[in-house]
Amino acid sequence: MSFAMPRTATRGVVYVHSTPKALCPHVVWAIEGVLGARVSVQWTDQPAGPGLVRTELSWAGESGTGARLASALRGWDHLRYEVTEEPSPGCDGSRWSHTPRLGIHHTWTSASGDAVINEDRLREVVVLAQGSSEAMQEMIEELLGLEWDDELEPFRYAGDGAPVRWLHKVG
């Protein structure tokens, strides 16, 4: 007996906060490979990084597309990016953040975009902190991705008002 599981549709955004111009075609090819469709993005100068460019695009597809996009972009030096995936029926929202110095960080997100820490991780923090409020604060900040947020914030701010292109995966 076999049956097909229904595919859950969701959407999200790929923010390429900064990349050298030479990587632009490779970034586009990676995104196209995941989405299964050609994409056209507008690269603009990144004021927070001389000689770097930025872009962002919205996507629509099945749940898990955000993880596949984040994985496809992972591993290139000098690339700062974030990928978001909105919550959908049966699936939590997510955000993947990447910087050259820190690598990749994943966090679940609420419907309003806030980072969410699940109860098992909180229990582990309480046990590992052994009563130290400083240790607990440090571990919670790591789970929330504070170090990634601090490093990406100047690049996010520089992108305010940038154009967004909506992409829809069909089929």
TrEMBL record:
Pfam families cross-referenced by the UniProt entry: DUF3145 (PF11343)
Protein name per the record: DUF3145 domain-containing protein
The species this protein was found in: Phycicoccus sonneratiae
